[in-house]
Design brief:
By secondary structure, the chain is mostly helical. Helices cover about 50% and strands about 5% of the residues. It folds into three domains: about 105-250, no CATH class; about 265-400, no CATH class; about 410-470, Arc Repressor Mutant, subunit A (Orthogonal Bundle). It has 20 helices and eight strands. The strands form three sheets. Strands 3-2-5-6 form a four-stranded mixed sheet, covered by helices on one side. Strands 1-4 form a two-stranded antiparallel ribbon. Strand 7 and strand 8 (about 410-415) form a beta hairpin.
Length: about 475
């Protein structure tokens, strides 16, 4: 087979470094943006965060080459080099500090140490504690633990010994720890309580009629246990006050489960009813290109020393990178500001009242068409961003929803439908909760024509159980 060579013209589209930088910064939430700026500032030697004090407001803020004669105190050491190197980069102390609490596992190990156990038994008990999940449950069967102890810890044991030491751990605090399922967890807690009539009935209920309890077959339970409705109510009230996840009572040492949210947008309303949107900038260091490097570039223009040429090439690359970064920050701000103002205008009635019923159906395409931005850009703006309003803090995704028509032919958002559905469930008779078919009828009375399968879907999304499981005594 003969080989052939030929030329072919092909049109391709490549993103510029500025476009790539802008895309990355647009999807960066405010809390991470400050760190991105600091990283760029510290990694790029031509960047400085100190504006001259006599800088005029009408000066051009774009990066530009400056004569070396205009530089003051350029030999001073940048402030960040004077900081202790083992501290976090964020100057706010609440972000640098952390508290070390006794971990969940350590709490149990301390209690194990107080038991009169042989070194062998202590090893087995410690292995069981290490096998508990974050909720305090032992999700593995005991035979698997026996095998793991032999192969991974070189500890010979058997099912009976592992079970006996598990029973020891199940006596530890918090009550319920070491359970293998929810039923056992609840029973462990009840058995540590004072024996009152409701506690005894609760124990018998979980021991002998657990499935009926889960399925809320209350009449069956009352007949089989010979209980009155009030006695069964008291037993159930004792059960529902128990903790289904005892491991969650003790914080792990370095687990940070709470998400910190810093809003990217602030929305306020003045006395005249006018909305004002701002974007906080206070923690962000101002960035501009150090003018001192112009001297090196100027010297390299006439120098024949290759080291000067290499230095100039390096500086030029860093200057270009700095300019792209500064420009990307500006484009990010403009893109986010334009997008958020468009969302506010689109959902103005909602932002004026804070009533979810006033949310209009809105998808990414709607905002993209108004702003002229690509849908992917709107998606990046919305991702992981929050707005603080006069009635709460919300993720931007909250304001986007599909729409359905009501009986008048008007389009309403799915969020409005879900709110109406929740109101129907909240107002139902809990002794005779509404079925999905009955919820369809209730929604029709409110002016919403919704299919039964749609009711079931929205109910699942709202975390609302089926009618049988919502039944109360």
């Amino acid at each position: 087979m003969a080989l052939r060579q030929g030329l072919e013209l092909k049109q391709t589209q490549k993103l510029s470094p500025l476009q790539i930088q802008t895309i990355k910064l647009i999807e960066t939430p405010f809390l991470e943006l400050e760190q991105s700026v600091r990283n760029e500032w510290e990694n790029n030697p031509v960047l400085d965060d100190d504006y001259p004090k006599d800088k005029k407001e009408d000066e051009d803020e774009s990066p530009k080459d400056v004569s070396i004669d205009e530089i003051k105190d350029d030999d001073s050491i940048p402030a960040y080099k004077l900081k202790v190197s083992n501290w976090g980069k964020d100057e706010r102390p609440e972000y640098n500090t952390f508290s070390v609490k006794e971990s969940f596992s350590q709490t149990l190990m301390d209690q194990l140490g107080f038991r009169n156990l042989t070194p062998h038994e202590y090893q087995v008990g410690a292995f069981i504690i290490g096998s508990l999940d974050e909720d305090g449950y032992l999700r593995r069967d005991l035979d698997s633990l026996v095998d793991d102890l032999a192969f991974r810890a070189n500890v010979e044991t058997d099912y009976e010994e592992v079970l006996r030491l598990l029973k020891v751990i199940q006596e530890f605090e918090p009550a319920g720890v070491g359970a293998r399922d929810l039923r056992e967890c609840l029973l462990l807690q009840l058995r540590q309580m004072r024996r009152t009539p409701e506690t005894v009935n609760a124990i018998l209920l979980l021991e002998d009629h657990y499935q009926e309890f889960v399925n809320k077959h209350f009449q069956k339970i009352m007949n089989r246990m010979a209980l009155s409705q009030e006695e069964l109510k008291a037993a159930i009230a004792r059960i529902v006050r128990l903790n289904p996840a005892p491991g969650g009572q003790v914080s792990d040492s370095y687990a940070d489960t709470a998400q910190q949210i810093v809003p990217d947008f602030l929305l306020s309303m003045d006395d005249s009813g006018t909305l004002h949107m701002t974007m906080p900038r206070f923690p962000l260091p101002e960035v501009h290109v150090k003018a001192s490097y112009s001297e090196v570039l100027e010297r390299a223009r006439y120098s024949k020393d290759p080291r000067d040429k290499e230095a100039a090439t390096f500086i030029k690359q860093k200057v270009d990178s700095a300019k792209w970064f500064v420009e990307a920050l500006k484009q990010r701000h403009n893109t986010l500001e334009t997008t958020m103002n468009t969302i506010i205008e689109f959902q103005k009635e909602y932002f004026m009242t804070g009533d979810e019923g006033n949310l209009r159906p809105m998808v990414l395409k709607d905002i993209a068409e108004i702003t002229g931005f690509d849908i992917s850009t709107i998606s990046r703006v919305v991702s992981s961003k929050y707005i603080e309003t006069w009635f709460g803090i919300f993720p931007l995704k909250f304001f986007f929803s599909e729409g359905l028509e009501n009986q008048e032919g008007e389009e309403v958002s799915t969020r409005e439908l879900k709110k109406a559905l929740k109101e129907c469930v909240d107002g139902e008779d809990k002794m005779k909760p509404l079925t999905d078919d009955q919820l369809v009828e209730e929604m029709e009375k409110r002016g919403y024509k919704v299919a039964r399968r749609t009711i079931a879907k929205y109910r699942d999304q709202l975390g609302i159980a089926k009618a049988r499981l919502r039944k109360e005594l």
